[in-house]
Design a protein that fits this description.
Glucose Oxidase, domain 1, Alpha-Beta Plaits, Rossmann fold, single chain, 27% strand, globular, alpha/beta, 4 domains
């Protein structure tokens, strides 16, 4: 037997190696990025597509046809996506005319009162200037599609579709051209291509799509950015009021590149290329990679598409991710992307827990319980009702399979949240699944982000209340409790504050660009959705709701896109970088109680959490000064980052004057990019001071003088030169330098502050972040 085993071992090993080699050479989806587009208006696109096939055929021994290529990119940038073997991908990446080749990975979705709350920060004088907005601003939403029947996409009162619109409304069996109108002017979808094995080989499979949203995410973001005014909107009576987008007069075009499973990077690139070609002014993308697996700028589909969008005058706004509160989790950090974090508004959703002794404890949740109160039930702690052989720590956290159904059935269960990898939804399903009558979660960190428990009695309390509950359970013979239905608390404070989940800076790829750029409402935002007949979420006697409360930087992103549309409607010729600068330099850094913005822990929020602050769209209509960041600035950024000149030339093509990188290009020079904020990765206490340059353009009164004021932490010396800038009919732009000295600054940590230029009417604030090292 021993000899027999030895005999078969080499054969088995050989078969494993052969199988592994077969898998390695099986075609998989890749994106081939070839830089800026070389197609001029009127040039034969069919010839371009043929050239892509010829290029692919030149490095492949397989039999190929036009169907071998999934998507062609040819308007704003050049390239294609196709199923390639690893050898083919490697061969293409080594070609001079190819910038990068990367796998077609799946990216993830970052999932009324908010707009009214944003307006509170603007004076009546500023708001009154915004009378009759133009209605030809077009916002492109790349997401999960759209539910066109929502009242948020009603086109009443809108004029004809802008003549420059070149898009389309794609028809499928469940989506007709008539579903589009003067509000929802375009709807595209992209077939999802997957790699599937039939037992002997890998092959490409196309799954047909539709513009219709089945998830609700795309409908929510589209209506937040530019939805029409809808009276008496609510989520089963909660948050009742007028639902509207930031720019109700804007037009919406949707591009379905995502499903419930995620978003294909090749489809996102195609959607961006189409959106630019169609004529959108602003693209809103609430999508991104995991913060743990960030790729560099030339292998990131959103960064690639956004660069060429910016090059062609289209602003791209992206969510910054939901991986907070840990540092260095922010994504979509390219300087040409407007990166958005999430904040709260002055509204809370409270669900009170009443103990059997009459004590009332404030909780947070969204639930729909019948009547004014629920029935009283016995209350138990998860740690004391563990299933057999289950560690107490697991039952305390209400792990799947950790609770004994016999001990839990008919009771309210108290769970703690010492393991954040287990979501609230999972804990709720675990408790509900073993027959409990309700759940109390002890976790103060997420109370600002209410969990939607549907019809199941649920509330979340802070640690102090949790201690009181456990003490009551431990000292009472027959402890009981009741969870009351949700009620809305308006005008709560302090607001805004940075959401617990909002991803933080500094950026992983470079710390010399400050990210996120800004924060906007992203907690419990009411907007349109896909009506669902899910019995577990629709209250008895109610029809499925067309509106829902959602949280995430996904919800914050369209708030900024809508704000940009407001500005674009009033200032048609402002570039994306000017609009971005206006929103950043006029952002507010104080709450509704007049104190500095805070994070979810109650501490003063830093620029790594809040960026330049909370958007104030109406203040941004008149910023005074602006930082114009040009395509040449972004190309210099790529030089400083270390990309080869030939790759950068391919990206630039003929749309810029770029010829070569500066002789001494280093990452430290990134801080000199003309950006509306300042970030310095390393300032040595013992080394030389660091000086950065900025240039501002006057968008205010022709004759004006601005004086600089500096706010800086103790020990960090910040000098602005010149200290005063005068503008006149012949002087519209001016430069200044900022020198940072860290000799006496606190070492080994970031120092934050700001520089504010003021002419008595305008305040132009530029926040800075400087990492001082001993």
């Amino acid at each position: 037997m021993f000899v027999s085993s030895l005999f078969y071992l080499p054969l088995t090993f050989f078969l494993l190696i052969a199988a592994s080699a077969s898998l390695e050479t099986s075609p998989k989806a890749y994106v081939v990025y070839m830089g800026g587009s070389s197609i001029d208006e009127g040039e034969d696109v069919e010839n371009m597509e043929s050239s892509h096939l010829q290029l692919l055929s030149s490095i492949s021994s397989r039999k190929l046809s036009r169907e071998s290529i999934l998507h062609h990119y040819h308007h704003a940038f050049s390239g294609f996506s196709a199923f390639l073997t690893e050898n083919e991908a490697s061969a293409l990446s080594s070609r001079e005319d190819v910038v990068s080749v990367f796998p077609d990975s799946f990216l993830h979705l970052h999932t009324t009162r908010s707009w009214d709350f944003l307006e509170v920060g603007s004076s009546e004088r500023i708001r009154s200037r915004y009378h009759h907005p133009r209605n030809d601003v077009i916002i492109g939403i790349i997401d999960t599609g759209v539910w066109p029947e929502s009242p948020s996409f009603d086109d009443e009162g809108l004029g004809e579709i802008p003549a420059r619109w070149k898009g389309t409304c794609m028809e499928t069996s469940d989506f007709k051209r008539s579903n589009c109108n003067r509000k929802l002017i375009g709807a595209r979808y992209y077939d999802v291509s997957i790699s599937s094995s039939n037992g002997t080989e890998e092959r490409a499979v196309k799954l047909r799509g539709t513009p219709r949203d089945s998830v609700g995410h795309g409908t929510h973001t589209a209506s937040t950015a530019g939805g029409a005014r809808v009276q008496n909107a609510s989520y089963y009576g909660l948050a009742e009021g007028v639902a509207r987008g930031g720019s109700p007069s804007a037009r919406i075009a949707t591009y379905k590149a995502c499903s419930e499973e995620g978003c294909s990077s090749s489809a996102i690139l195609k959607a961006m290329d189409d959106a630019i070609k169609d004529g959108v002014d602003i693209i809103s993308i609430s999508i991104g990679t995991s913060s743990l697996f960030q790729v560099d700028y030339l292998n990131d589909p959103i960064a690639i598409g956004a660069f060429h969008a910016e090059q062609m005058g289209v602003m791209v706004v992206c969510s910054g991710g939901n991986d907070g509160p840990e540092p260095s989790t922010v994504i979509n950090t390219a300087p040409w992307i407007f990166t958005v974090g999430a904040s709260s508004i002055d509204r809370e959703f409270q669900s009170t827990l009443v103990l059997g002794n009459g004590k009332k404890l404030r909780g947070s949740a969204i639930n729909f319980l019948n009547g004014t109160s629920s029935r009283e039930y016995p209350i138990v702690f998860g740690g004391e009702v563990a299933a057999k052989y289950v560690p107490v720590n697991e039952s305390r956290n209400c792990y799947p399979g950790s609770l004994d159904p016999k001990k839990v059935s008919g009771k309210i269960v108290v769970c703690i949240n010492s393991d954040p990898t287990l979501t609230r939804r999972v804990k709720k399903l675990v408790v509900e699944g073993v027959g409990a009558k309700g759940m109390v979660l002890v976790d103060g960190t997420l109370m600002g982000n209410p969990f939607d428990a549907g019809l199941f009695p649920f509330t979340q309390v802070d640690d102090s209340a949790g201690s009181e509950i456990l003490k009551y359970i431990g000292t009472t013979k027959n402890p009981s409790a009741v969870i009351l239905p949700t009620h809305v608390v308006s005008n709560s404070s302090p607001a805004p504050s940075v959401a617990y989940f909002s991803s933080r800076g500094p950026g992983v790829l470079t710390e010399n660009i400050l990210k996120p750029d800004i924060i906007a409402p992203g907690i419990a935002i009411l907007a349109a959705t896909v009506p669902t007949n899910d019995a577990s979420s629709v209250p008895k006697g109610k029809k499925p709701s067309g509106y829902i409360l959602k949280s995430g930087t996904s919800m914050a992103c369209p708030h900024v896109a809508g704000s940009a549309a407001i500005i674009r409607s009033m200032h048609q010729w402002w570039s994306p970088s000017v609009i971005k600068s206006a929103l950043m330099t006029t952002a507010t850094l104080s709450s509704n109680v007049g104190k500095p913005l805070t994070d979810s822990f109650g501490q003063t929020a830093s620029p790594h959490e809040a960026g330049s602050g909370e958007i104030s769209p109406y203040k941004a209509l008149h910023p005074g000064l602006a930082y114009e960041t040009t395509t040449e600035d972004y190309l210099l950024f790529l030089c400083y980052y270390g990309y080869p000149e030939n790759k950068i030339r391919a990206i630039a093509r003929t749309k810029t004057k770029f010829t070569s990188c500066p002789k001494h290009s280093t990452g430290d020079l990134i801080s000199n990019i003309n950006y509306p904020s300042i970030s310095i990765q390393t300032l040595s206490k013992r080394g030389a001071p660091i000086t950065v340059k900025r240039t501002v353009t006057n968008f205010g009164p022709i004759n004006s003088t601005y004086i600089a004021a500096v706010e800086s932490p103790r020990g960090l010396v910040v000098e602005v030169s010149p200290h005063e800038i005068a503008f006149s009919p012949t002087v519209r732009r001016a430069s200044y330098r900022v020198t940072f000295r860290g000799t006496k600054a606190a070492g080994d940590n970031y120092n934050f502050g700001s520089i504010t230029w003021s002419d008595g009417r305008h305040s132009v604030r530029t926040v800075f972040s400087v990492n001082v090292v001993a």
